[in-house]
Amino acid sequence: MKSFAADLRKFAQATERNLNDTVRQVVLELGTRIVQRSPVDTGRFRGNWQIAAGGPDVRTNEPFDKQALGSQPSATTFDRWKGEVNAATIGSTLYITNSLPYAARLEYEGWSQQAPAGMVRVTVTEYEQIIRQAIAKVKK
């Protein structure tokens, strides 16, 4: 015979798992959209987006991530993100950064005709929608 406490514990574990999955999906979607919106010339800028927990990752990647020339983050970029994103749980703080010296100019000064309104600011306006989509996906 099942106890109420066991049922409650099972419900709490499932809820926590769903919340953690939602956090991971939201972070990946934010990162993906930012990369997709990033201007591309050589692939260097797109290949230098970092996701990190605990504080901003200020490293840059050399050589360029040639796969980042496409509209999606490359497998190399996702591989760098994977460990941090998979470890994320509800309450985690994750930072999405690009530490190239011209990143702020691209974001705030309209330095590129490919992304005149920036990448991060545009994506942040979609945050609520991204969360709703992630919740709906986890519920399935």
What does the model show?
This protein has 140 residues and is mainly alpha-helical. The protein has one domain (21-139). 51% of the residues lie in helices and 7% in strands. It has 5 helices and 2 strands; from the N terminus they run αβαβααα. It has helices spanning 4-37, 75-87, 103-108, 120-124, 127-139, and strands at residues 49-53, 94-98. It has a two-stranded antiparallel ribbon with strand order 1-2. α1 packs across α5 (127-139). The radius of gyration is 18 Å and the shape is elongated.
List the helices and strands and how they pair.
Layout: H1 4-37, E1 49-53, H2 75-87, E2 94-98, H3 103-108, H4 120-124, H5 127-139
Antiparallel strand pairs: 1-2
Assembly status? single chain
Task: Describe the sheet with the most strands.
Answer: 2 strands, antiparallel
* β-strand number: 2
Order of helices and strands: HEHEHHH
Summarize the structure.
This protein is mainly α and 140 residues long. 51% of the residues lie in helices and 7% in strands.
